[in-house]
Specification:
The protein has 357 residues and is α/β, with parallel strands linked by helices. It has two domains: 314 residues, Rossmann fold (3-Layer(aba) Sandwich); 37 residues, no CATH class. Helices cover 21% and strands 23% of the residues. It has seven helices and 18 strands. Strands 1-18-17-2-8-11-10-16 form an eight-stranded mixed β-sheet. The protein has a two-stranded antiparallel sheet with strand order 3-7. α2 crosses α3, α5 crosses α6 and α6 runs parallel beside α7. The chain is globular, with a radius of gyration of 23 Å. The two termini are 14 Å apart.
């Protein structure tokens, strides 16, 4: 177990090549929030560098894992404090001014992930989408019903929108923008998995459906890679469905003689895991921010690695990937920019080790 604090792009460069078997991660979504890791250079050391909320064009992440949000009356200046002139220094991903800059940063991070990933390794990337929306101080958003206090000033856009035809209220398509950019950069885009949430965040919308899904992309370094489909098979909906008998004779892959009155070809207690995963969101009591549900991570780790393999999460957060990795006897490397999250992860994984060992 190795928990590292710092900018993931820089920390990844310190890891050896081909040292990781499986990556499971959920980066900060574009336009969600400011995680409070910025520092300030110059100006007044006693200044809070905050300004009152106002009417803006901003970004809102449409779906996130389901943590509590904190309403704030003031937000940090984005680049320069207008009260004291201090310059904001911030390595956070998700604060980029445009979707294209966000995608570019993600491509850079995943180049380093590819370098440290073994040739037969896999990467599982979870992303939610974002809307371009207009917010007004103290009022409900005209698209989602969410107040502006949940949005960081870091996501404010130009008055006319975000460029490239993205208008207020548009769904941007961030997950697919990232997926296609990674594919163009050399990754194999093997699958899009739908994370179906039975308990999605409520949305006061009247002109579209409430969003109840996110994407998980399976990415690989090569066309052939380690993938243990047996480890994540799920119970068959109808174990005695005689699929072999229904197939044309020339396509049958199993014998069709009967055993105890049932065709041998017709007993299927398990089936290959489907591409829609129904997993409820589960907040972690120690974290006020969005966290991975362990049940969502488990099949990624079981299918993408063996015992004693190394699992990496470059956006560690509260360390849920680490918890599931240790549970299944994998080694774990976690990276996070926020030192508070690093401390939280050490505490959480120490408790896991006590329970397991």
């Amino acid at each position: 177990m190795n928990i590292l604090q710092g900018d993931c792009l820089e920390v990844l460069k310190t890891l050896p090549e081909c040292s990781v078997q499986c990556v499971v991660t959920s980066p900060p979504y574009y336009g969600l929030r400011d995680y409070g890791t910025a520092t300030w250079e110059g100006g007044d050391a006693d200044c809070d560098h905050l300004e009152p909320k106002g009417s803006t064009i901003g970004m809102k992440s449409d779906t996130f894992h389901g943590s509590n949000t904190q309403e704030a009356h003031y937000i940090a200046y984005k680049n320069t404090c207008k009260k004291c002139g201090a310059i904001r220094i911030d390595d956070q991903i998700g604060l980029e001014e445009t979707p294209e800059k966000y995608v570019e940063k993600m491509v850079q991070v995943f180049r380093e992930i590819k370098r440290v990933l073994k040739d037969d390794g896999v990467a599982w990337l979870n992303l939610g989408d974002s809307y371009a929306t207009r917010h007004a101080n103290g009022t409900k958003d005209d698209d989602t019903g969410w107040s502006h206090g949940e949005i960081s000033q870091g996501y404010q856009a130009r008055a006319g929108g975000l460029g490239n035809g993205v208008k207020p209220k548009d769904l941007i398509g961030i997950p697919w923008m990232v997926a296609f950019a990674l594919r163009a950069d050399g990754w194999w885009l093997r699958q899009d998995i739908i994370w179906h949430k039975p308990n999605p965040m409520p949305e006061s919308v009247t002109d579209r459906c409430t969003k109840a899904h996110e994407y998980i992309f399976l990415l690989t370094k090569s066309a052939r890679y380690y993938y243990d489909h047996e480890a994540i098979k799920e119970p068959s909906k109808d174990p005695v469905d005689d699929r072999g008998a229904r197939a044309a004779e020339e396509h049958k892959r199993f014998p069709t003689e009967k055993v105890n009155g049932i065709r041998a070809s017709g007993v299927y207690p398990k089936r290959n895991k489907r591409s829609v995963w129904t997993v409820t969101t589960k907040p972690y009591k120690e974290a006020h921010f969005a966290t991975f549900p362990p049940d969502l991570i488990e099949p990624c780790i079981l299918a993408g690695s063996k015992e004693s393999d190394t699992v990496l999460d470059p956006f560690n957060g509260s360390g849920t990937t680490g918890e599931v990795s240790l549970k299944h006897k994998r080694d774990y490397i976690g990276i996070d920019l926020n030192p508070d999250y690093i401390e939280l992860t050490h505490k959480r994984l120490a408790e896991v080790e006590v329970r397991l060992f």
